[in-house]
């Protein structure tokens, strides 16, 4: 009976959560650096922002500023000016937390937000990147410590479909950057797959 139960659990694992959704991808020719054309050209860019974390909801304005030293500041505050967080992403890939409100100042939350915005800022290390395809899309695959980041484009790499941060088997975060105008996406959506942690940004035109 115990052996039957173990076999059933193994079969369930193989059919569901243990399935590698990227298994069918095939290596193909292509230049991984083509995705750099989708790197947002943020320069004092303002977004109306909604953040849903489990049962909590935050709304306000998110400001992304290009600094003179080529670092980027990401500041999120409510409409009254109360700051939720203030992060800096340096030119050489370092991360600096300038401020985080006490309720949110947890290591896991900061790490999650850092990872989310690193996807959006789109500065991947392409030294070990490869290009794969499923016959419909190109996947620029960038290895990470716990899996890979997949930058998914059309076959000619002229349109960014989405970005996926994955474990070794399946996506854990999906991000969409759409409606680019003058190098800046009007809409950004970030969705975590295993729990409710969603960020929605809509550009505020000046």
List keywords for this structure.
13 strands; 13-stranded antiparallel sheet; mainly beta; 206 residues; globular
Principal-axes geometry comes out as globular
As laid out across the biggest beta sheet, the strand order is 1-7-8-9-10-11-12-13-2-3-4-5-6
> What is the share of helical residues?
10-25%
Overall pLDDT confidence: 90
Uncertain runs are 4-16
Give an account of the 3D structure.
By secondary structure, the chain is mostly beta strands. The chain has a domain at 41-121 and 196-206. It has two helices and 13 strands, in the order H-E-E-E-E-E-E-H-E-E-E-E-E-E-E. The chain has helices at 2-15, 107-121, and strands at 26-27, 45-53, 56-66, 72-77, 83-89, 95-100, 130-133, 138-144, 147-153, 160-166, 171-181, 184-192, 197-203. Strands 1-7-8-9-10-11-12-13-2-3-4-5-6 form a 13-stranded antiparallel beta sheet, with helices on one face. The longest helix is centred in the middle third of the chain and has 15 residues, at 107-121. The model is unreliable at 4-16 (pLDDT under 50).
Short description:
The protein is mostly beta strands and 206 residues long.
């Amino acid at each position: 009976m115990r052996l039957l139960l173990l076999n059933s659990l193994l079969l369930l694992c193989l059919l569901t959560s243990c399935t590698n959704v990227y298994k069918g991808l095939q290596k193909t020719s292509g230049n991984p650096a083509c995705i750099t054309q989708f790197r947002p050209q943020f320069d004092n860019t303002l977004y109306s922002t909604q953040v849903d974390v489990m049962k909590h909801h935050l709304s306000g304005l998110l400001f992304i500023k290009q600094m003179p030293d080529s670092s980027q500041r990401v500041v999120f505050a409510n409409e009254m000016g109360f700051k939720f967080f203030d992060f800096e992403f340096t030119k050489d890939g370092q991360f600096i937390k300038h401020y985080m409100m006490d309720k949110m100042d947890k290591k896991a939350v900061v790490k999650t937000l850092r990872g989310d915005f690193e996807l959006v800022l789109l500065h991947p290390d392409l030294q070990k990147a490869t290009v794969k395809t499923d016959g419909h899309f190109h996947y620029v695959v960038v290895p990470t410590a716990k899996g890979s980041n997949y930058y998914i484009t059309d076959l000619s790499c002229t349109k960014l479909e989405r970005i996926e941060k994955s474990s070794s088997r399946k996506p854990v975060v999906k991000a969409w950057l759409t409606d680019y105008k003058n190098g800046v996406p009007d809409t950004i959506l970030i969705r975590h797959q295993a729990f409710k942690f969603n960020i929605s940004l809509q550009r505020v035109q000046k």
